[in-house]
Each structure stands twice: as structure tokens, then as C-alpha cells.
Design goal:
The complex is a heterodimer of chains A (about 425) and B (about 200). Chain A is mainly α and about 425 residues long. Chain A contains 18 helices and eight strands. The longest helix of chain A has 30 residues. Chain B has three helices and seven strands. Chain B has about 200 residues and is α+β, with helices and mostly antiparallel strands. In chain B, a hairpin with a 4-residue loop joins strand 4 and strand 5. The chains are: A mainly alpha (about 425), B alpha+beta (about 200). The interface between A and B is large, with 53 and 43 residues.
């Protein structure tokens, strides 16, 4: 009898199911995974060190590039940390706008996740539907910030500007006639809020469609049920947060437990899983999209009725209006100081966390009173979840590794930073 | 956290940690405690297991290099390990700081046995700051390149690094060479003096 050894397989970094640049060294016993050793850092850009050399405001766009699938949520944590150090109030309308875009971001993230997770596991069609709906939401991003992904829309003190009154329209071209584009432009005839309202009323039905494709699908369940089970105790030991923790049956959501902005005024529920397997995490995320849609609707209603400022009027932090800057000496000085030196943040340290689509995203900043952070630490949820990879895949088949990576919802922008 | 919660947490910390607590500070609605490296592991176990504290989760652990920080007391050490803890049961947070005693060979006990999640966080702190964690079973570099030299997040490590990589057509392989970019600073770092902008300041 020849002696049989475990053999080692290199998974990634160019594997399509590795969600970016994950390299994993898998030790296999036949087709069963004995040990997994993820090698990360292939996308490391030293964001935290770069932030130490940039003024506070210049680092906002870096935040978009962390988890590049939930851009505005990253900015949110960063801006909130600065605001807490400066102890400034954000206008209520800006808070509602932030919450609305946080929830849009959550839907964006979960749609991409369900599409790609489906693709990994073998449900090819899902990604096409998911991207159809994502299109509308990135259009909303574009309408407020001009960018479809890297928005840099949240700023310390509020948001960059108020919501626009009209949406960009499709134009007639030699490929699309006026008749063809008319249905596309119908929802875009009003303001951004009308457009989002139209989306929010369509979306629950679309979610039902996705669920008919996946939830009771036999193949989907065979691939997901009882794969990558994490018990409540292990989830806490491994520092899980967000849908990964809720999938394991812990009702923990920062939006409810440590509410920030205006989450305490909004009505929504927290879905919780039972067994902590990949299927439960799938169900949790699907339900989260429905709840996000509910929040989105409430924000639209409020924002329609309550106009107001969207940026703090503290000009040590937020820029004065162009008009004021050109007619008033004081504002001119503020403008000059803000554009040359940037804002000065008082000495201290603060940790601010938001309920990011992937879990708890935290920003820990130490300031020594300068116009740049002394130290910035990003707490990425994906990093923590991926560190549990070895524990989650051990004993599973090779094909389940893909399912587990998918159900962890990892994005390498934030893991490698 | 509300003022009442902060008060309860501070009292519980003082009672449970006793002598091990070097200092406790409340600022911006957050509690920060400092413990010595000798008591670190013991204190962390108490923080996790004591029912009045009940920090089940380690949220974050990172290294900090205080060498250029003007206002941290001299003599406390250059490197510190800062952890953020979260209690799900009690719904509160805590920051724990532990200075490494020796600046030339910073070392702080590993908490991987207390919270398994510390594994990668400690590898990261080792990689970026060169802080060693005795008790960690697999202290390898994690974020930097294979074969990287130095600890890039130390304050004396330049932002551009020391080496750059390019493809050399003659040797037909990727080579490392000293960096060719000039260091530059677009906006200088400014710390304003305490009297800045005060009317009575001459």
C-alpha cells in the first residue's frame, strides 16, 4: 500500500471566487479541507499611514476605497469620529440624508453580495438581476455626488450638498430611439427623492423575485445549509459583528443598541438566524434588504417635508458659502485657512463605529491637535471574519470553501487597507 | 454611552481590577484604562470573565507608536497596544492601553487565548510596528509583502518606504532598488499653540 499524504493546494489570488486578491493555502486530505491559511495583504496600500500625512478632510476619499462596495458607510464612520472629537452637531437634515444613503449602501452591498455569492455557488442568473437594481442606486449616488462609486459625499459637519431636484435623463442616440428610452426616463422626471421613492416601492417585489429563485431552491439549499456553522460562543470569540453575528443568533445591531444619527427615530426590525450556517446568513441579509427599504421610505418621507441646512455652520470645520466668502472678511479668512491648513482637531482619541453592511466598521483616531491625524486605525469587519476562515472551513469539502468565502462577504479593499 | 453607564462602568472597573488599574480616564463618552504589561493578561481575563464587566468581544487591537506625540508623558514608553472591547450583554465599550516596557524590543503578552480574534490583529501589530506578542502561536507578517524588511507604521519609517520594485528587461525579472521618488509634503503638519486666536494673546 502506498502511503497517502495530505496535499497542499494554492487557491487564488487569481481565482474568480476569491473575491479579489485572496490567496489561500489549503491543506487537503482527499477532498476534505484540513487547514486553510489565508494570505492577505496583496492589496495593502497603507491607508492608515497615508492618512497620517494628509489633512483630515483629504482622507475622506481614501475611506471610499476601503470597502469599495459600501463606500458611504466607510465615510460615515470617519466623519463621525472627527465630529465627535470636534464636538460639533450635524444638522438634522444631513443626519437623515446620511441614514438614507447608509441604507442605500446596504442594499447596494447586499445586492452585489447575493449576485456574486449566487455566481460562486452556481446560480448564474442572480447577478444579472442584482446589477439591474444596483444600477438605479448607483445613479442615486451619482446624482448627489457626481461619482458612481467613490462618492466622498459625507464631510465632517454634514454632507457635501443637498439632494438634487432633478435626475440625469437618458438621451436619444443612434442605438436607442426616443420611444425606447421613454420608459427609462419616466421615473427620472422628478427629483432624486421621487426616483428613490419609485425604487423603494418596486424593490420589495423584486426581492420576492430573488427569493423565488434562491430561497427554496434545492441546489441552493444543498450548497448552503449546514455549511460553515458558527455557534454563538465561537462567533463572540472570533469577534464577529453584523450579519455574521446575527446569523449565529445574537440580536446585536449598532443601529438599535448604540443608535447614531437618527436611527432611534426610525422603525425597523433586526433579523436573527438560528443555526449560524451559510443559509441563515443568506436569509438574514435578504431580510436586511427589506428592512433597509423600510428605512429608506421613512427617510424619503421625512426629507420631503423638512428642508433645512445640510452642513454645519461652524466655519472652523465646514466651508462658508461662496457668497459669504466673497463679501465678508471673516469668512474669507476661514475659507483660506480651511483650504490651506485644513481643520484642526483637538487633542484626544475616539473610536466611532457604524453598522456597516458587513459588520461593525470602526475608526479609531488619535489626534494631537494637529491638522492631520496622529494615528488612524480602521477596524474592518471583513478582516475579522476572514481570520475565522480556518475554523469555518476545516472538515468541509473543497467546494464548500467557495460557499464560505461567499457567505463571509469579504471585500479586499478593507481587509488589506 | 450615557453618563450613568460611564459612571457604573468606571466603578466596576475600579472594583474588579483594583491594583492592576494604572489609570482610568473618561473622555468623549468613552472609557480608557491603562494597565501594565505584567498585569495585562490577567486584567484582560478579568475583563472578559467578571460578570460586572462581561467584555465578550475584542473588537479591535492595534499598535501605536507614540514617539512623535508631543503630549504623552515621557517615560511611559514608545509603543503601546490599544484594544477596544465590547460587551454585548451590558452594551458598553472600553479601551485598554498597555505600553510595551522596552523600546528597543517592544513586547506585550498575547491575548489570543482570551479572545481568539486577537490572532490576526496581533500579527498586524507585529508586522506594522514590530511589537512582539509572547504566547502567540503563529506570529508572522500579514499585510506587507513576503520578505519585507522593517516595520512600516513606525514613525521613523518614511511614507515612501526604502525600496521600490520594477521589471528589469536586462535581467528579465522583477528587481528591488532604492526608491527614486523625492519625499514631499504638500500641506505641512501644524499644531497650534494653546493661546492661538485668543484676544489677549500678544
Amino acid at each position: 500500500m502506498p502511503e497517502l499524504h495530505n496535499f497542499t493546494l494554492n487557491f487564488g489570488p487569481q481565482h474568480p471566487a476569491a473575491h479579489g486578491v485572496l490567496r489561500m493555502v489549503l491543506e487537503l486530505d482527499g477532498e476534505v479541507v484540513v487547514r486553510a491559511d489565508p494570505h492577505i495583504g496583496l492589496l495593502h496600500r497603507a491607508t492608515e499611514k497615508l492618512a497620517e500625512t494628509k489633512t483630515w478632510i483629504q482622507s475622506v476619499p481614501y475611506m471610499d476605497r476601503l470597502d469599495y462596495m459600501s463606500m458611504m458607510c466607510n465615510e460615515h464612520a470617519y466623519c463621525m469620529a472627527i465630529e465627535r472629537l470636534l464636538q460639533i452637531e450635524v444638522p438634522i437634515r444631513a443626519q437623515y440624508i446620511r441614514v438614507m444613503f447608509d441604507e442605500i449602501t446596504r442594499i447596494l452591498n447586499h445586492l452585489l453580495w447575493v449576485g456574486c455569492h449566487g455566481l460562486d455557488v452556481g446560480a448564474m442568473t442572480m447577478v444579472l438581476y442584482a446589477f439591474r437594481e444596483r444600477e438605479d442606486l448607483v445613479d442615486a449616488y451619482e446624482a448627489v455626488s457626481g461619482a458612481r462609486m467613490h462618492a466622498a459625499y459625507y464631510r465632517p459637519g454634514g454632507v457635501y450638498r443637498d439632494l438634487p431636484d432633478r435626475m440625469a435623463q437618458y438621451k436619444e442616440s443612434k442605438w436607442k430611439s426616443a420611444v425606447q428610452i421613454k420608459p427609462f426616463n419616466e421615473a427620472r422626471s422628478g427629483s432624486l427623492l421621487d426616483f428613490l421613492d419609485d425604487f423603494a416601492s418596486r424593490f420589495p417585489k423584486l426581492l420576492d423575485e430573488y427569493e423565488t429563485l434562491l430561497t427554496d431552491n434545492r441546489i441552493w439549499k444543498q450548497r448552503l445549509v449546514d455549511v460553515g456553522i458558527v455557534s454563538r460562543e465561537r462567533a463572540l470569540q472570533r469577534g464577529f459583528t453584523g450579519p455574521m453575528l446575527r446569523g449565529s443568533g445574537v440580536a446585536w445591531d449598532l443601529r438599535k443598541k448604540q443608535p447614531y444619527e437618527v436611527y432611534d427615530r426610525l422603525d425597523f426590525d433586526i433579523p436573527v438566524g438560528k443555526t449560524g450556517d451559510s443559509y441563515d446568513r443568506y436569509l438574514v441579509r435578504m431580510e436586511e434588504m427589506r428592512q433597509s427599504n423600510r428605512i429608506l421610505k421613512q427617510c424619503i418621507d421625512w426629507l420631503r417635508k423638512n428642508p433645512g441646512p445640510v452642513m454645519s455652520d461652524n466655519h472652523k470645520v465646514a466651508q462658508p458659502s461662496r457668497e459669504a466668502m466673497k463679501s465678508n472678511m471673516e469668512e474669507l479668512i476661514h475659507h483660506f485657512k480651511l483650504c490651506t491648513e485644513g481643520i484642526h482637531v483637538p487633542e484626544g482619541e475616539v473610536y466611532s463605529a457604524v453598522e456597516h453592511p458587513k459588520g461593525e466598521f470602526g475608526i479609531y483616531v488619535i489626534s494631537d491637535g494637529a491638522n492631520k491625524p496622529y494615528r488612524l486605525k480602521i477596524r474592518p469587519p471583513g478582516y475579522v471574519h476572514l481570520s475565522a476562515m480556518n475554523e469555518m472551513v476545516a472538515g468541509h469539502m473543497l467546494a464548500d470553501v467557495v460557499t464560505i468565502i461567499g457567505s463571509q462577504d469579504v471585500v479586499f479593499g478593507e481587509i488589506d487597507r | 454611552m450615557s453618563a450613568a453607564t460611564l459612571e457604573t462602568l468606571s466603578q466596576n472597573l475600579q472594583r474588579c481590577l483594583g491594583e492592576r488599574l494604572r489609570s482610568i480616564a473618561v473622555a468623549f463618552g468613552e472609557v480608557t484604562i491603562e494597565v501594565g504589561a505584567d498585569d495585562y493578561l490577567e486584567a484582560m481575563l478579568i475583563l472578559r470573565d467578571e460578570l460586572d464587566l462581561c467584555f465578550e468581544e475584542l473588537i479591535d487591537l492595534c499598535g501605536v507608536d507614540y514617539s512623535l506625540h508631543s503630549r504623552v508623558a515621557v517615560g511611559s514608553g514608545r509603543y503601546a497596544v490599544v484594544s477596544h472591547l465590547l460587551s454585548i450583554a451590558r452594551n458598553w465599550r472600553l479601551r485598554v492601553r498597555c505600553f510595551a516596557p522596552d523600546d528597543s524590543f517592544p513586547s506585550v503578552p498575547s491575548v489570543t487565548a482570551v479572545w481568539n480574534v486577537a490572532d490576526w490583529f496581533e500579527r498586524e501589530a507585529f508586522d506594522l510596528f514590530g511589537i512582539v506578542f509572547p504566547g502567540h502561536h503563529d506570529l508572522r507578517r500579514i499585510l506587507t509583502d513576503y520578505g519585507f524588511v522593517g516595520h512600516p507604521f513606525r514613525k521613523d519609517f518614511p511614507i515612501s518606504g526604502y525600496v521600490e520594485m520594477r521589471y528589469d528587461p536586462e535581467q528579465q525579472r522583477v528587481i528591488y532598488q532604492p526608491v527614486t521618488i523625492e519625499p514631499r509634503e504638500v500641506t505641512p503638519r501644524v499644531v497650534r499653540e494653546a493661546t492661538y486666536g485668543k484676544a489677549d494673546h500678544a
